[in-house]
Amino acid sequence: MDEILDFNPCVLKRGDLPRKTDKDPRWRSRAVFSREEIEALIYDDRIPEDRRVLYALEFLTGMRSGEAAALRWNAWDQSPAPLGKLAVAVSYDSRAKVEKATKTERPREVPVHPALAKVLASWWESGWARFTGRPPTGDDLIVPAARGGSRNVSYSLKAFHLDLATLGLRERRHYDSRRTFISLGQADGARKEVLRWITHGAAGDIVDLYTTLPWATLCDAVACIRVGARDARVIPFPTQERGDVGETQEAGEEAEKKKALTLGR
User: Fold this and answer.
1) Lowest mean pLDDT among 19-28, 196-205, 229-238, 255-264
2) Could you tell me if 45 and 232 are in contact, meaning their C-beta atoms sit under 8 angstroms apart?
3) CB 153 within 8 A of CB 65
4) What is the pLDDT of residues 160-187, one digit of tens each?
5) In 3-state terms, what secondary structure has residue 5?
6) What count of other Cβ atoms lies within 10 Å of the Cβ of residue 141?
7) Strands, DSSP E only, in the chain?
């Protein structure tokens, strides 16, 4: 860091450093969202429409938050069958405030889940204009910030926690939408290697470079996820699995406090 050495003198072998462990060993098993929780975040009209569209993109594609923030309408191709596709090639860096390559630096094509297709169609036809004050064009971001431009990931996390509190759900990371997509996909019958192709792209070894999976195979892996398409509405939600009535009431009280604050976008 002081630019005294030109290279790192440490040469470490596998096993020299301790294995990574979770501070809370229980959090991974509790990080995944249930189908009912996903549908509440996407369809409950207590949640602002723009954020419901963002959640649909993240939970039904496995995209990273920065990738969803950089996605434009011209990335959506509705012509392929059996499902349309989203071209994921760039990601928004909130710190540098620039668009850059995805984390893996490998563009990929993601099938559009039937429920997501309905959400995007409604957002294109009327929701986007209500949110921005003008009709969308192909070059526009699908879910822009209220003041224009790409959404700040830090703001999106704060809004996400606010929405979870509004619904009476326990707080989790925004990034857990990606974990949920992979977990539910496998639970509903999708093969791990196909889901990996959708969420990460080709691994980069020589076999992957010579492999192109049939589009129908990728579509099957996404379409099998059992999240239904429906219109926005209030979804009554039961008491949290791990909590009791007191915890649910605390979440509701916290939501009321947060509603009194102005949350800048």
Assistant:
1) 255-264
2) yes
3) yes
4) 999 999 999 999 988 899 999 999 999 9
5) coil
6) 21
7) 76-77, 85-88, 90-93, 98-101, 108-111
Q: What residues pair up with 88 in beta bridges, in sequence order?
A: 108
- Find the helix or strand (DSSP H, E) in which 195 lies: helix 192-200
Helices 35-43 and 49-61 sit at what angle, rounded to 10 degrees? 150
| Cβ–Cβ < 8 Å for 220, 213 | no
Which conformational region is residue 149 in: left (phi greater than 0), alpha (psi within -120 to 50 degrees), or beta?
Answer: left
Which of 100-109's residues contact partners 24+ apart within 8 Å by CB, and which partners? Answer: 102/64, 102/67, 102/201, 103/64, 104/200, 104/201, 106/200, 106/201, 106/202, 106/204, 107/201, 108/197, 108/198, 108/200, 108/201, 108/202, 109/85, 109/218
Asked if the bond preceding 82 is cis, omega within 30° of 0, the reply is yes
CB 263 within 8 A of CB 71: no
What would the two tokens of residue 211 be?
Answer: 């492999």
Report d(CA 199, CA 58) in Å as an integer: 11
Taking Cα atoms as reference points, which of 164, 156, 193, 153 lies closest to residue 251? 164
**Measured between alpha carbons, how far is 92 from 149 in angstroms, rounded to an integer?**
10
Structural domains present in the chain: 27-259 (1.10.443.10)
Q: What is the pLDDT of residue 82?
A: 95
For Cα atoms 174, 178, 180, give the angle at the middle one, nearest 5 degrees.
100
> What does the alpha-carbon distance between residue 79 and residue 86 come to, in Å, rounded to a whole number?
11
pLDDT recorded at residue 136: 96
Strands 90-93 and 85-88: unpaired
